[in-house]
From TrEMBL:
<dbReference type="Pfam" id="PF13177">
    <property type="entry name" value="DNA_pol3_delta2"/>
</dbReference>
<dbReference type="InterPro" id="IPR050238">
    <property type="entry name" value="DNA_Rep/Repair_Clamp_Loader"/>
</dbReference>
<dbReference type="InterPro" id="IPR027417">
    <property type="entry name" value="P-loop_NTPase"/>
</dbReference>
<dbReference type="GO" id="GO:0006261">
    <property type="term" value="P:DNA-templated DNA replication"/>
</dbReference>
<dbReference type="InterPro" id="IPR004622">
    <property type="entry name" value="DNA_pol_HolB"/>
</dbReference>
<dbReference type="InterPro" id="IPR003593">
    <property type="entry name" value="AAA+_ATPase"/>
</dbReference>
<feature type="domain" description="AAA+ ATPase">
    <location>
        <begin position="39"/>
        <end position="182"/>
    </location>
</feature>
<dbReference type="GO" id="GO:0003887">
    <property type="term" value="F:DNA-directed DNA polymerase activity"/>
</dbReference>
<dbReference type="GO" id="GO:0008408">
    <property type="term" value="F:3'-5' exonuclease activity"/>
</dbReference>
<protein>
    <submittedName>
        <fullName>DNA polymerase III subunit delta</fullName>
    </submittedName>
</protein>
């Protein structure tokens, strides 16, 4: 896969699903509030540490905002580049600064997310570490997910669908996408092609990473 999804390692099935959803979203008016094909307004992206949950969410956000006429997520248009850089006006990443995401913060996010997009196709809210939502914050988010604004998409990231990681009520209203642990070969390939490592170093780093892409990059030099 080329474009923004080239950053996602060893998740071909997930790439195909998210690209298909972004393509389906283009067939719908952003302000109609209807669901077309494989697109929906709330997603839960799960996977083990290092599998690329937040990367997948950000790539999907870019694909939804992508303005190219080709496959969504071209990686070259302004919408893609600003989304991946964290500067797109209609894409918000919620990264917990402490141990939890409080209800006050979530209410502020919900209020902003209810606005119409300013420059993009959608208002996209990426909630990294959604397992850190307090009960009050989860309930505040649930209310807007149950009655979503027509042009808003929520992308939640959590380790699993276990009730310890995500509220059952939230889980039931999201489309679930499960990432898997990347294979040694997939990690080695990205270290070789993307990071320019010699094959021997790349395969060693991948083999001792435990399927964690970030850990492999940190250990890439023996």
């Amino acid at each position: 896969m080329s474009g923004v999804f080239s950053r996602l390692v060893g998740q071909h099935a997930v790439e195909q699903e998210l690209v298909a959803a972004a393509s389906a979203a283009r067939g719908d008016s952003p302000h109609s509030g209807t669901t077309v094909g494989t697109m929906t307004h709330a997603w839960l992206i799960t996977g083990p540490p290092g599998s690329g949950r937040s990367v997948a969410a950000l790539c999907f956000a870019a694909a939804l905002q992508c303005t190219s006429e080709g496959t969504p997520g071209c990686g070259e248009c302004r919408a893609c580049t600003t989304t991946m850089a964290g500067t797109h006006a209609d894409v918000r990443r919620i990264v917990p600064e402490g141990l939890s995401i409080a209800v006050k913060e979530m209410r502020e996010i919900v209020q902003i997310a209810s606005r119409r997009p300013g420059t993009g196709r959608w208002q996209v809210v990426v909630i990294e570490d959604a397992d850190r939502l307090t009960e009050g914050a989860a309930n505040a988010l649930l209310k807007v997910v149950e009655e979503p604004p027509a042009s808003t998409v929520f992308l939640l990231c959590a380790p699993s669908v276990d009730p310890e990681d995500i509220a059952i009520t939230l889980r039931s209203r999201c489309r679930h996408v499960a990432l898997t642990t990347p294979s040694v070969d997939a990690i080695a390939d990205v270290l070789i092609s993307g990071d320019g490592l010699p094959e021997a170093d790349a395969r060693w780093a991948a083999s001792v990473s435990g399927g964690h892409v970030g850990r492999a990059r940190a250990r890439r030099w023996r």
